[in-house]
Write a structure and sequence with these properties.
Largest sheet: 8 strands, mixed
Radius of gyration: 19 Å
Number of strands: 8
Order of helices and strands: HHEEEHEHEHEHHHHEHEH
Structural class: alpha/beta
Strand content: 15-25%
Number of helices: 11
Shape: globular
Helix content: 25-40%
Strand order of the largest sheet: 1-2-4-3-5-6-7-8
Distance between the termini: 46 Å
């Protein structure tokens, strides 16, 4: 059987997988995640600070400019690893390519700080960034949430929770349904189904559709690419276990949110050979059905984590994402 990865992606995938521990050892995973990162492009101003107690790194490609987009970025790493340093090159590339100020959030990690610690930190940084937008030379009406992998989950959860709508969400191969990954069913009466006993019949039907959609994506790409493509189904299930929270809750599993109609324009960047691919596609379909402006960039021949890797698709995806950010209005 022919390999679905490109030759370059296969060689890189195998090398990365050989150096990456299996699930179960937080210390080993964190140590492995730090190494092998390439430097990103130069950015005029890069500084560390705090956003109401949450460490952040602010990338400003053109100090003194005004009216620019402001990107609040959440790094990936299964909610248990990575940080400002591991995603420095990605944030530099997005800032340099888009002209936007990027605020990268160093949210608290599981298992020491399980859900909802990361989501609370993410919302804190968004609210801080919006309040500081003018001081950062940005338009408070052009604030975008963004993230890769688990950071993509945090981005869309933050968009769901934001008291005022954000202008966009950039989601790079996000995990969106804990129950599908962990093989659990949605019990009757969970937070995803109802929060009060006065829920209307329409809301019940909408939630049933969301649950059915989420359950359906537990097959397909997860079965095809759950092994042998760097990011494994076993890793994903373990990450979800460390993260915690009710798998049916929409602030854990946004694919199960009953109503997506209030979400902003969205770009989903997906790898074709990724266990999470079908969750992203299912989310895009639900966004479209809800009337949300949603674009999908699906890259063939690459695996989960390809953004920013030394692959043609990684460079193309970063440039396209930066162009999309630049167009935010």
């Amino acid at each position: 059987m022919s390999d679905s990865l490109s030759p370059g992606a296969r060689a890189l995938c195998d090398a990365m997988a050989a150096a990456f521990p299996g699930p179960g050892d937080v210390t080993a995973l964190r140590a492995a995640a730090v190494g092998g990162r390439s430097a990103g492009p130069g950015v005029a101003s890069v500084r560390d600070g705090e956003a109401d107690g949450v460490p952040v790194r602010v990338y400003d490609p053109a100090p003194g400019s005004t009216g620019r987009p402001l990107v609040v970025f959440f790094h990936g790493g299964g909610w248990v690893m990575c940080g400002l340093g591991t995603h420095d090159a990605t944030c530099r590339s997005l800032a340099a390519g888009s002209g936007a100020v990027v605020v990268s959030a160093d949210y608290r990690l599981a298992p020491e700080h399980p859900w909802p610690a990361a989501t609370d930190d993410a919302l804190t940084v968004l609210l801080w960034a919006r309040a500081q937008a003018a001081a950062l030379g940005c338009d408070p009406g052009r604030v975008v949430v963004a993230g890769d992998s688990s950071g993509g989950n945090l981005a869309t959860v933050t968009a769901l929770r934001a008291p005022e709508p954000v202008a966009g969400q950039l989601l790079v191969y996000p995990p969106l349904d804990a129950a599908a990954a962990m093989g659990t069913a949605t019990p009757t009466g969970t937070a995803a189904e109802t929060e009060t006993e006065t829920e209307t019949e329409t809301e019940t039907e909408t939630t049933a559709t969301a649950t059915a959609t989420a359950t359906a994506v537990a097959t397909g790409s997860a079965a095809a690419y759950g092994e042998g493509h760097f990011h494994t189904a076993a890793h994903m299930a373990w990450y979800w276990e460390q993260y915690g929270g009710d798998p049916a809750h929409p602030h854990v599993s946004p694919l199960r949110a009953p109503d997506l109609s209030g979400l902003p324009r969205t770009l989903l960047v997906l790898a074709d050979c990724d266990p999470l691919r079908d969750e992203g596609l299912a989310y895009a379909r639900r966004l479209g059905a809800a009337g949300v402006d949603c674009a999908v960039h699906l890259y063939p021949g690459v695996f989960h984590g390809f953004l920013g890797l030394p692959l043609p698709a990684g460079r193309t995806a970063l440039a396209a994402a930066a162009a999309w950010l630049r167009s935010t209005r």
